[in-house]
Amino acid sequence: MNRITVYERANFEGLNREFTCDVPDLHELDFGNCIASLKVVGQPWIAYTEPKYEGEPHVFEEGEYASVEQPNSFSALRLVHHDLGDPQIILYERPNFQGACKVVTEETNLAYGYFNDRVASHVVQRGVWLLYQHPGRGGWHCLAWPGERLADYGPELNFQSRLSHLRPLQPGQPL
């Protein structure tokens, strides 16, 4: 079973709640903006800083997180239901899927190649991807979902062709 257990204090201390399905508003369950540590079993979860899956997304793959990067800031939780096996995304040099393209199937640091800071659109074939503005998983990031066809990074992502690193989410092993 896929689940996330959230704790109000670091190191898995204090009040806790366990969830096995999406939670659009943690405030309704008296657990909004109070998560400081968590444990994930199975598929990844995404914690959002605003209710109804809005705001900045934070991805938590299977494992234990004794402290989270932005404690006391999560207002919604979403389980990743998508098949994460055999991921694939196609990156395009120009908007509207034009120019040179690159097929990516694994974590890739674009900083050392032609496509660094040149990607302007993409098509997600399979998997869920994290796209980062800077090399080494740095800077602003966003999620790219299966079937997503993002025609222009400028107005839609405000990336301005600044993609430098990307990685697919890893599937968990539910009990």
TrEMBL record:
Domain Beta/gamma crystallin 'Greek key': 2-42, 43-81, 87-126
Similarity annotation: Belongs to the beta/gamma-crystallin family.
Superkingdom field: Eukaryota
Keywords: Repeat
Keyword Translocase recorded: no
GO molecular function annotation: structural constituent of eye lens
Annotated protein name in UniProt: EDSP protein
This protein's encoding gene: Edsp
Keyword Calcium attributed: no
Gene Ontology biological process terms from the UniProt entry: lens development in camera-type eye; visual perception
